[in-house]
Amino acid sequence: QCPWGAPNTTSISCSLADVMSEQLAKELQLEEENAAFPEVVAVAEGPFITGENIDTSSDLMLAQMLQMEFDREYDAQLRREEKKINGDSKVSISFENYRKVHPYDSDSSEDEVDWQDTRHDPYRADKPTTTPRKGFVGKGKDITTKHDEVVCGRKNTARMENFAPEFQVGDGIGMDLKLSNQVFNALKQHAYSEERRSARLHEKKEHSTAEKAVDPKTRLLLYKMVNAGMLETITGCISTGKESVVFHAYGGKSATEDKVIPPECAIKVFKTTLNEFKNRDKYIKDDYRFKDRFSKLNPRKIIRMWAEKEMHNLTRMQNAGIPCPQVVILKKHVLVMSFIGQDQVPAPKLKDVTLSSEDMKKAYSQILNMMQQLYKECNLVHADLSEYNMLWHDGKVWLIDVSQSVEPTHPHGLEFLFRDCRNVSQFFQKAGVAEALNERELFNAVSGFNITADNEVDFQAEIEALEKMNEDHVQNHGKKLSMFSGDGDPPIYDE
Ligand code: ADP
Ligand code: MN
């Protein structure tokens, strides 16, 4: 009897269908791979070189390894020199470009090249020595196959010419050198990965912040803001969405338009790839504030209008005292606003934060208030309100992401409001806030309407009827007389 008890023999159960389908998948993959790599360098036997399996019988290989060792020492020496020169001076000189061996960047392992993939082999020889289809030349004893060492060796040496120009292959190309497949493959792997590493390193230096997420024109805009002293540094990307990229930046000293620049800023860059915005047309096309302009604009300008819209809407909210980012500046499709959060850490979204039931209750009543303020005082419907666009900061909820917000008289404004209400009440009911109104009650509480329908479908129908009524009214009497501005609501803003 084993002192540790009987061995556990239960094996993980797995259905026959699973096993079969896995096998099938493997077979299919093999087939696919075989089709994709029909012409792998002819190392019919013997594995490719791996870490533990280095063929040290070749002099060239040994020389190559020595060279790499030497390069490493050279780089270490460079690093020492660099340190000596720079001391603890604030301005430092980098010898990075002179290094031979590029430091391995760990985050790139996932795009490490599969150098055996000959579909995109950049080192493929231009004029490969022809081996007939049948795979051999000659007759009888003098037969030479494509595996022939001499032919293959010469071919490999010729291929070396196609390595990147920085890759020093020596003058072996002119000689009658015969590289074994193993050595050639090892070299090819080395050359390829060095080239890629070098390219990556370069890329990193060029765009040390996450600015590479934006196009050159936008980058220029951002640089200008930094140059003008408006921003101190752009530290990195907070979020990349379908329609926007948001960066964090430290505010600069110079306040241009007698405005104090907040110590930390969020930069929202509206994406200029247009397709994402197509389905958002309805938010802006039917917004009468932009109606006259819309038809004359090209898509690029429409995107600027999104940024402009967000700015106007934020300003309205700011004026009403709703917690939201403060607008710093708008330049084309780039909106700079105050950062909600601290020390580069953005405030968490309501969906991500764990609140005590007391705080959750507080958050709810705050949001109810904000929605009413937004509607009544700002004459706006958020139109994308959910736990994703509410941040929890400083013990309260902040509203963000208002580029799509519309006025309630928008042809679909009330539908958007109803959707907002549904998101909010579902979130808080799930979070266990007993006070949370249901979506229909919330809609009435925010809008001041008194729709009595007790089910979703009828309620929705009444909302659409209201919208239709308003549209007809606008058609007949112009926007100023619409029902929303008629009964004591604030006048419609002219912007
Ligand atoms: P999108 O249209 O991509 O959803 P958002 O305006 O919601 O754009 O911004 C995306 C994310 O960026 C937000 O969820 C939030 O985490 C962050 N963010 C945006 N603006 C700010 C800000 N002013 N302060 C802090 N974080 C912000
Ligand atoms: Mn958002």
From TrEMBL:
<keyword id="KW-0690">Ribosome biogenesis</keyword>
<dbReference type="GO" id="GO:0005524">
    <property type="term" value="F:ATP binding"/>
</dbReference>
<keyword id="KW-0067">ATP-binding</keyword>
<feature type="region of interest" description="Disordered">
    <location>
        <begin position="103"/>
        <end position="140"/>
    </location>
</feature>
<dbReference type="InterPro" id="IPR018934">
    <property type="entry name" value="RIO_dom"/>
</dbReference>
<keyword id="KW-0597">Phosphoprotein</keyword>
<keyword id="KW-0051">Antiviral defense</keyword>
<dbReference type="GO" id="GO:0005737">
    <property type="term" value="C:cytoplasm"/>
</dbReference>
<dbReference type="InterPro" id="IPR000687">
    <property type="entry name" value="RIO_kinase"/>
</dbReference>
<feature type="compositionally biased region" description="Basic and acidic residues">
    <location>
        <begin position="116"/>
        <end position="127"/>
    </location>
</feature>
<dbReference type="InterPro" id="IPR011009">
    <property type="entry name" value="Kinase-like_dom_sf"/>
</dbReference>
<dbReference type="GO" id="GO:0046872">
    <property type="term" value="F:metal ion binding"/>
</dbReference>
<comment type="similarity">
    <text>Belongs to the protein kinase superfamily. RIO-type Ser/Thr kinase family.</text>
</comment>
<dbReference type="InterPro" id="IPR018935">
    <property type="entry name" value="RIO_kinase_CS"/>
</dbReference>
<dbReference type="InterPro" id="IPR051272">
    <property type="entry name" value="RIO-type_Ser/Thr_kinase"/>
</dbReference>
<dbReference type="GO" id="GO:0051607">
    <property type="term" value="P:defense response to virus"/>
</dbReference>
<dbReference type="InterPro" id="IPR017406">
    <property type="entry name" value="Ser/Thr_kinase_Rio3"/>
</dbReference>
<protein>
    <recommendedName>
        <fullName>Serine/threonine-protein kinase RIO3</fullName>
        <ecNumber>2.7.11.1</ecNumber>
    </recommendedName>
</protein>
<keyword id="KW-0391">Immunity</keyword>
<keyword id="KW-0723">Serine/threonine-protein kinase</keyword>
<keyword id="KW-0479">Metal-binding</keyword>
<dbReference type="Pfam" id="PF01163">
    <property type="entry name" value="RIO1"/>
</dbReference>
<feature type="domain" description="RIO kinase">
    <location>
        <begin position="203"/>
        <end position="448"/>
    </location>
</feature>
<keyword id="KW-0963">Cytoplasm</keyword>
<dbReference type="GO" id="GO:0042254">
    <property type="term" value="P:ribosome biogenesis"/>
</dbReference>
<dbReference type="GO" id="GO:0004674">
    <property type="term" value="F:protein serine/threonine kinase activity"/>
</dbReference>
<keyword id="KW-0547">Nucleotide-binding</keyword>
<keyword id="KW-0460">Magnesium</keyword>
<dbReference type="GO" id="GO:0045087">
    <property type="term" value="P:innate immune response"/>
</dbReference>
<comment type="subunit">
    <text>Interacts with CASP10. Interacts with IRF3; RIOK3 probably mediates the interaction of TBK1 with IRF3. Associated with 40S pre-ribosomal particles.</text>
</comment>
<keyword id="KW-0808">Transferase</keyword>
<keyword id="KW-0399">Innate immunity</keyword>
<keyword id="KW-0418">Kinase</keyword>
